[in-house]
Each structure stands twice: as structure tokens, then as C-alpha cells.
Amino acid sequence: MSEEFEIDLDDLKRRMDGGIASLRVEFASLRTGRASASMLEPIMVDAYGQKTPINQVGTVNVPESRMVTINVWDKALVGPTEKAIRESGLGINPQLNGTIIMLPIPELNEERRRELTRVAAQYAEHARVAVRNVRRDGMDQLKKAKNDGMGEDDFKIWTDEVQDLTNTYIATVDKTLETKQAEIMQV
């Protein structure tokens, strides 16, 4: 392989890792019938004139398997925090107790479980698209290098490398989706 035409596989890996990490964050926000502090991570509260992550306006705890509590530090932010939770689409009805917001996690019915598996599949497809976009960028770099004088053999070797990397990450997305769907469907 010609040294002057190498593409940065580490950069492609790093960017594909970002897609997988994003998928895991999205999966953590999906409710599976068990309480988890991570399910609140995507929620942003309108605090002090700007959007703030929920864990920066109060302490998030999981005192039992079907309950999440948020102890809001500033009394003025209890209302906006409750509103952000209601509008988040989690399907949880917050209950107020002073500055503590309690989120009882209801049991998931079969229909809601199927709906959540479809949402998980959408998240996985977004991750696959992200991985494929990184692959496309790598292939564009290779085509440019080929036009700049890269040999046919080197081009083929690098193309196979990028495709193998892509296949590995797509398989990771599929495996992660399979695990999440099994977790959601578990009663």
C-alpha cells in the first residue's frame, strides 16, 4: 500500500463509534417498564432562559424498581421541570411533593411494548444511516486518492477495508437493536 494515499481509518472508526454511542443513549431513554435515571437524559428543562439537562436542575434518584424521583434544587424550576417531563413523550404522569417530582413507571402493556420496539428499530436505522454516511465519506476520500494517482490494487485494498469496517459497525447496530428489543418485550 502506498503510504501517501492512506486514508485515516481511525477517524472513520471514531466517527462510527459516535453513531453507536448515540444509539446507546437513545436506547437508554426508551422505557422498558423498569425505572432508570438514564430515561430522563434527553429531557431538557427551560431553566433561566435556556434549555438545561434535567440532571442539572435537580438530583435524579431511583428509590425502587418502578419509581424515579427528581429533587429539584430551585423551587421556581419545579413547574418547568414537570412540564418538560409531560411534554417529553415518555408517557409518564409526574406527581409533585414539594420540590420532589415523583415519576411512577407503569407496567407496559403488549401494544406499548410493540410500539417501543418499532421506535427502537427507527433509532437503529438512524445509526445505520450515520455509519453508511461515514462509509460514503471514506469512499469519497478513496475516489479522490485514485484520481490523484492511487494504484488500482491499493484502491481495492482500501475499499475492502472501509467496507469491512462498515459491516462490523452495522452488525453492532443490529446486535444492539436485537438486545434492546428483547429487553422491551420481556415481561
TrEMBL record:
GO cellular component terms listed in the entry, alphabetical order: cytosol
UniProt-annotated location(s): Cytoplasm
Gene Ontology terms for molecular function: ribosomal large subunit binding
GO BP terms: cytoplasmic translational termination
UniProt superkingdom: Bacteria
Residue ranges annotated for the Ribosome recycling factor domain, each copy included: 24-185
Keyword vocabulary terms for this entry: Cytoplasm, Protein biosynthesis
Function of the molecule: Responsible for the release of ribosomes from messenger RNA at the termination of protein biosynthesis. May increase the efficiency of translation by recycling ribosomes from one round of translation to another.
Family that this chain belongs to: Belongs to the RRF family.
Protein name as it appears in the record: Ribosome-recycling factor
Gene: frr
